[in-house]
Input
Amino acid sequence: MNAVLTVTGLLVFGIVGAPQKPPQFSQEVATTRLGEGLYLLEGAGGNVVAYVWNDGVLLVDDKITPVTPKLKAAVAAISDKPIRFVLNTHWHFDHSGGNEALAGDGAVVVAHENVRRRMSVGNFIALFDRQLPASPAGALPIVTFTRDVKFHLGGEEISVVHVESAHTDGDSFIRFGRANILHMGDCFLNGSFPVIDYSSGGTYPGTVAAADAALGMADPGTRVVPGHGPIASPAELRVWRDMLATILERVRKAVSEGKTLEQVKAERPAREWEDRFPDSFVTSDHVVEEAWRSASGSGN
Output
């Protein structure tokens, strides 16, 4: 099953719907070696990158709560070192679900200050018409930053860079300098139109700008890790970015002509890409609505 479909299906279950039984999904975690001390951990929840050095393990994100035992087992299979740091790319539960358990084991959870702020209280996600409770105190990041922070571990420089109001208002990229790997969190979904959580400060233009920022941090050899989906090249990220920018430009033009949302949808501004992502719950209509919200001033 497509990774984006699997995770976004969980988002629908966890945030949108209330089915009688939870959907079936695999809690297995697949491990792929990316280079010296670096691994990609895939499965239900967002993509995790694990970095192993002499004194421990650093994780970028930690999936959904039910997967935590499998995640810990996957890490133990590649190293007997303790998990010392967890970096959350943003606050959503499919990227921070293991925080409480890993912090209980001694890991230090680090994130942008807006991640802690949003996790500390209940959140209504208007995009999915769902109220989420505050996270347990033990799941909250205990180290926060306002802009950027760097880790120097085992000869690797790990840059954590905040990007403004893209998927949410607390998004961060994590770049492994020596390995030339860039984790973008959900500012990039490889295999899906974007999900923009506007009630958490996300914006459509900010998502395009985040892709531009990532491309500015990359070179042709950079491996780009999306929040969900397979690793991509900068060229593939640029194609995704240009798709979003083209849709936004078309919607802005239609809005300037006084057209309604239904009229804009009828023009099919995402027509070239309508069938590109058949396994994602984010449809071409969804992305047009996201662009409309920005272009019309009816939301972020």
Q: What stands out?
A: Residues 39 and 285 are 36 Å apart (CA to CA). The chain has a mean pLDDT of 91. The two ends are 32 Å apart (CA to CA).
